[in-house]
C-alpha cells in the first residue's frame, strides 16, 4: 500500500530523516517510536506530502506520491496532526463534516450526513455534536479531529490513516479506545501509521514497529523482534526492564530509575 524507499529530508545541512525505507500493507498497523526530536513528525509530514523528500521516493498504491492530484490524495489518505488548534468557532458536527469536503462539490448529501453520524458514534462524541469546538477539553477535541479524518476516508476501505500521537491528551480509557479503534481500522483493511510515545501501546497494537533515532532507523520489525532492552536504550537513552505479563504476547516495558 505505502512504500517508503530510501528517503532523506534535509533543512540546510541538517538531515531530519536519513535514508529511511519501509513498507506498510493494507490491513497493517505500523507504530513509529522515537525520542523527542527523533524525526517522527517530519516523517509523517513526508508521508502525507506536506513536505517532499530530498532523496528517495514514497509510493502510494505503487504510484509516486508526487503524481497524485490533491483531491484524489485527500480521498485516499487522512492525517491526524499533532496540533489541532482552530482560531475560529465551529460546531462539532460542522467540523466533522469538513472531513467530507473532498467528497462533495457544494452541499453535503444524505450519505455525507450519515457518515458524520456514524463516525461520531464510533468515537463516542455524539453528545458533543452541537457544542462549540473551542469549548471542548483537549481530549474531546482530539476525538472530534479523529472523527473528522474517519469521515474523510470512510468510503475508501483500504485508505491510509496517518496518526501523529493520537492518544495525546486522552485519559486511559480513551487512549485504549483510540488504540482499539486504530487496530480495528487496520483489521478492516486500512493501512495505519501511528506515532506513539507509549512503547506498551505500540507493542500491544502494532504489527510492525519502526524505532527512530536522529532521523535514522534503529530497528524495524514485529513487536517481538524489536522490543528489547538494547533497542530501547539505543532509541530513548534509558535503561528498561522487561516483564512478562499474562495475556500479552510482548513483555511490558518498565523504565529503570535514572540515577542523578
Ligand atoms: N523547520 C525546521 N527547521 C529546523 N529544524 C527543524 C524543523 N522542523 C523540525 N526540525 C528539527 O528536526 C528534528 C525532528 O523534529 P520532529 O518534529 O520530526 O521530531 P519528533 O520526533 O516528532 O519529536 P517530538 O516527539 O518532540 O514531537 C528536531 O530536532 C527539530 O527541532
Automatic annotation (TrEMBL):
GO terms for molecular function: ATP binding; ATP hydrolysis activity. Keywords: ATP-binding, Nucleotide-binding, Translocase, Transport. Part of the ABC transporter complex HmuTUV involved in hemin import. Responsible for energy coupling to the transport system. The keyword Nucleotide-binding applies. CDD domains: ABC_Iron-Siderophores_B12_Hemin (cd03214). It comes from Pedobacter lusitanus. It comes from the Bacteria. SMART domains: AAA. Pfam families: ABC_tran. Residues 2-239 form the ABC transporter domain. InterPro entries: AAA+_ATPase, ABC_transporter-like_ATP-bd, ABC_transporter-like_CS, P-loop_NTPase. The keyword Ribonucleoprotein does not apply. This is ABC transporter.
